[in-house]
Amino acid sequence: MKETPSGTPVGVDDPYDHVGVCDHLTDDGKCRYAFENPEQDPEFARERREDDLECPAANPDGDWDWESCPHFRCRNRERECIRCGLDERRMAHSDERPLLEEHHLSYASSGETLSHEITVYLCRWCHAKVHKSWARVTDDVNPDPEAIAEKEGRRSREQSEASFESAAERFDLDGE
Prior knowledge:
By secondary structure, the protein is an alpha+beta fold. Helices cover 26% and strands 9% of the residues. The protein is extended.
């Protein structure tokens, strides 16, 4: 199992088994990175411009896979834990800790710079289990009871805030 530089497990053997498409890929198969950041890697941008900005990793007939691209980035956008399925419940204007945390599957080896960012969302409880034990991201588990209680508590507060209460009731204008 892959590990962080500090030696804790990340819960996967191969981070590339958990990627979708590159965040820089446009709907028409072009490389947004080469277009928007040519100064970051001029040689890469020049090669992409020669190919009309076509992403060679997205081309099924191409020679590249996602690992071949020096600027590959894939961050999960789904707002639910990929391990247990718990979905996020954020409270507006609150300092409460989110239920979901971004979990990195790709880390730089000691002394190397990280070129690929591969992240997914895990709930706080699954995140702790993956980093502190043998738990894997691909385990088929149900949400932790404490996680469900926290989510339902937030949902109850959200519903009570959305309920109608007249100003007279809230501020007791009769002085009673």
